[in-house]
Design brief:
little secondary structure; Leucine-rich repeat, LRR (right-handed beta-alpha superhelix); 14-stranded parallel beta sheet; 2 helices; 14 strands; elongated
């Protein structure tokens, strides 16, 4: 998995393959080392059907998948984002070599069982559709590394998700999920997990087994207590648990020494752990809109910090960052005086 981008949990990677017009970001991660030609026009693709590996039909006003798509036996990447599709034909089963498939931003409500034939799939996205339930046949796609169902209407993650032992990214933002199955001992390769905008109140015990997890987004859920399982995620780089109802963090949180980006905004925190400064790699800290009256003095030990946002609290003064390697961008309420000038050090 690639480096985590600053602040947000999306990442971009270089693209080295050849396209007839310009590179297609969707295919970049999976085909960056391949000399494939990508097509955006079916008529052009039909001239050399056996040489069509990547087909981008994004935003072409399609109401159904053109039947010609199924004439490309070697197709590995198919992008159908931003169309007006309402269904997926059973003939999708013919595209057995597909590795990357996106139906994002359509109006699809159901997934046909024939999807189970696409056993080479590594990436699939149904972002912004009307999917409420996944067929069990979906569980046969055991090579999947990335699954995206953000902004659908899913109410649960089925237990058979444990079949996805190769899964590295799971994106389920803005659904209606109330709990997670206890499957993370098995799907332990996850590096990025996005569950913002659901109705979670707790995490299952096996969550602690996600030893490779680098990005975790639990914002906009219903947590009232900090999930202690997070304390076991030793490779966590980005944590967003904003817009919940947390009143305190467990001290064990300070053991997450690789954390760089931490968003605790819009909770009900009255204090932060006194040893928060042990997060030696912390770069960006957002505690906006809590009930904090002071910040721990251990923050003065931070050397990598570049931004602190602490607006809308009950703070009386700003912290000092005497060991910071660069100027620290500090955002406080206007009435709080900044009693020092941040020191810039040139390495």
């Amino acid at each position: 998995m690639k480096k985590f981008a600053l602040v947000i949990s999306f990442y971009f990677i270089g693209m080295s393959f050849t396209f007839s017009q310009y590179p297609i970001n969707l295919f970049a991660e999976y085909f960056e080392n391949e000399d494939y030609i990508g097509f955006r026009n079916i008529e052009e693709a039909l001239k050399t059907p056996n040489e069509v590996y990547l087909l981008d039909l994004e935003d072409q006003g399609l109401t159904q998948i053109p039947k010609e798509v199924f004439l490309f036996p070697n197709l590995k990447g198919l992008n159908l984002k931003y169309n007006d599709l309402t269904s997926i034909p059973d003939s999708i089963r013919l595209l057995k070599n597909l590795k990357v498939l996106s139906f994002a931003f359509n109006s699809i409500n159901t997934i046909p069982n024939s999807i189970a034939s696409l056993t080479n799939l590594e990436y699939i996205s149904f972002e912004n559709n009307g999917i409420t339930k996944l067929p069990e046949s979906f569980s046969k796609l055991t090579r999947l590394k990335s699954i995206s169902f953000d902004n659908c209407d899913l109410v649960e993650i089925p237990l058979w998700f444990q079949n996805f032992k190769e899964l590295e990214e799971l994106i389920l933002i803005e659904n209606k999920i109330t709990s997670l199955p206890n499957i993370f001992l098995i799907i332990s390769k996850l590096k990025r997990l996005e569950l913002s905008g659901n109705q979670l109140i707790s995490l299952p015990p096996s969550f602690v087994n996600l030893s490779e997890l680098g990005v975790l987004n639990l914002s906009k859920n219903l947590f009232t207590e900090f999930p202690k399982q997070i304390c076991g995620l030793k490779n966590l780089v980005l944590l967003n648990i904003s817009e919940n109802q947390l009143k305190k963090l467990d001290d064990c949180f300070c053991q997450l020494s690789k954390i760089e980006f931490l968003n605790l905004a819009e909770n009900e925190l009255v204090a932060l752990p006194i040893k928060l400064g042990l997060l030696s790699q912390l770069t960006i800290l957002d505690v906006t809109q809590n009930q904090l009256t002071e910040l721990p003095s251990s923050l003065e030990e931070l050397t990598e910090i570049v931004e602190l946002n602490a607006r809308s609290n009950h703070l009386k003064k700003a912290p000092i960052f005497p060991k910071a390697n660069v100027y620290v961008g500090i955002q406080f309420d206007d009435e709080i005086p900044l009693e020092y000038e941040p020191l810039e050090k040139v390495k």
